[in-house]
Amino acid sequence: MQKGQLGHGDTIQRDRPTVVSELLKYKIVRAGAGRSHTVVMTEDGISLSFGWNKHGQLGSGSVRNEIESSPVRCLVSEVKNIACGADFTVWLTSAEGASILTAGLPQYGQLGHGTDNEYNTKDSSVRLAYEAQPRPRAIASLSGETIIKVACGTNHTVAVDSNGYVYTWGFGGYGRLGHREQKDEWAPRRVDVFQRHNVLPPDAVISAGSVNSACTAGGGQLYMWGKIKNTGDDWMYPKPLMDLSGWNIRCMNSGNMHHFVGADSSCISWGHAQHGELGFGPNGQKSSAIPKKVDILEGMHVISVACGMGHSMVVVDKTNVGDRLDQLDIYDGKASDEGVEEPEIQIAAGKQNAKKGTAKASNNSKKRKNPKDSSDSEGDEDDDDSENSDEQVNGQTEQKGRGSNPAGRGRGKGTNKSTRGRGRPPSANKSSQPSQGRPGKRGRPRKS
Q1: Whose CB among 36, 208, 319, 398 lies 3.0–4.6 Å from 3's, allowing a Cys bridge?
Q2: How far is it, in rounded angstroms, from Cα 127 to Cα 372?
Q3: pLDDT digits (tens, 9 = 90+) for 387-429
């Protein structure tokens, strides 16, 4: 696309999956995507990236090329996992003393190095910018810990160490860091709820949405914190989501304000949606305040889920699904020489279909405007595109940050700063929900 994030050496839009030819010589086992960049990991621990590199999020050690439309090597080795925020990247490695490294935009402290690298663009200017961090650097405060899990939101990070302790840092708005306050954290801070007798088990699931975070703790109980739904109080610290108690949760992911879970032989979703991202079908409800099973996937073993700002993806094990997959609609893309049709824009009931370029279409787009995200203010800043030519792997050399003392520097935009949160999402609208998929008496989505 425009920032080269597809890795094909150009900026051409492609409407169907296309093999990245320069990656054919590698066996890719993991991939992550940010706002406009992509990072992959090979079977032998090599990491490559492509796309927008204005903030150094590709981890190549340089910001000379703002766009890298073909894969470039990241300056990390022995990579075990990767995760991408909007404009930054996190790598987990098996290198001694460098189990977690970060690169990219440091604006809210999401890199975890104790600074946001803020500076004035000119001596007499009040406009601020944030120094790009193009070389992956180990987080010093976690040098004595082995980080085994990581997830990234738009501008915050969640990590788990080998002892089962949970750390969060970065943008603190809406309580998404789980520290009972909305202050930004420029270095990893342990979440006190998951200590002592409530540490995370080795098979725990963690997730970071745009404005919230989640994990499974003892007994597989799902905890969430941050902005969970559009109305009501924010959850300023982790609270158990009782609707999913007792389910064997294998995977979870959150988008802007919607959530997907793979558990037992079901796929469950809930939250605020506008584009069908909950998977309930064209005739199903658009949003759901309570977890509800995705009927079309019932009985399938969900391996993995992923959520974007307005879409969702689910990977299922096709071993025992029989002909169930044949019942799903198939989209095979369009050939490059075929014209791309403009989809009809649906207007509210009683109005005719809008035609391209008419005022009705414009009005309709306003009706479907995405809910306001606290990270709307997390805009792009002009950074110095200076090249960092000292290519050191796994960030063993310390760098000097220009940021000031992080104490008290909060940019959280949430209007409700109370430290109280509700223990579970309300279900006042249950009467409007179809009986299929309501939680049972024990707080579980009813199984068929």
Answers
A1: 36
A2: 25
A3: 444 556 776 654 444 444 444 444 444 434 434 444 444 444 4
CA–CA separation, 18 and 24 (whole Å): 12
| 339 sits in which H/E element | none
CB atoms within 10 A of CB 386: 13
Q: Cβ-count burial of 408 within 10 angstroms (0-12 exposed, 13-18 middle, 19+ buried)?
A: exposed
Residue 287: helix, strand or coil by DSSP?
Answer: coil
Which pLDDT band holds residue 375 (cuts at 50, 70, 90)? very low
In angstroms, the CA 435 to CA 206 distance is 30
Separation of alpha carbons 267 and 260, rounded Å: 7
Q: What is the mean pLDDT of residues 212-224?
A: 96
Nearest-angstrom CA–CA distance, 240 and 368 = 31
Burial of 17: CB neighbours in 10 Å, binned 0-12, 13-18, 19+: exposed
In three-state secondary structure terms, 325 is helix
State the pLDDT at residue 109. 98
SS3 helix, strand, coil % of the chain, rounded to 5? 10, 30, 60
Paired strand residues for 81: 92
Copy the structure tokens of residue 219: 């007994």
> What share of the chain has pLDDT > 70, as a percent?
74
Tell me the two tokens of residue 390. 């000292």
Q: Which residue has the higher pLDDT, 399 or 28?
A: 28
Q: List Cβ neighbours of 77 (8 Å cut-off, separation of 6 or more).
A: 45, 46, 93, 95, 393, 394
Query: Residues, the chain, total?
Result: 448
Which of 72, 25, 29, 31 has its CA nearest to residue 51? 72
Contact (CB, 8 A) for 114 and 186: yes
User: Read out DSSP for 362-420?
Assistant: HHHHHHTPPPPPGGGG----PPP--------GGG-S---------TT------S---S-
More confident residue, 163 or 388: 163
Q: Which residue has the tokens 């993991």?
A: 30
Question: Between the CA atoms of 292, 298, 302 and 308, what dihedral angle is there, to the nearest 10 degrees?
Answer: -50
All structural domains of the chain: 21-328+401-432 (2.130.10.30)
Residues 6+ apart with CB under 8 A from 301: 265, 316, 317, 319, 320, 321
The tokens describing 209, both together, are 């949405």
Amino acid at 434: P
Q: Which of 282, 223, 221 is nearest to 247 (CA)?
A: 221
- Residue 356 CB neighbour total at 10 angstroms: 9
According to DSSP, the β-strands at 28-33 and 222-226 are unpaired
Q: What is the pLDDT of residue 396?
A: 61
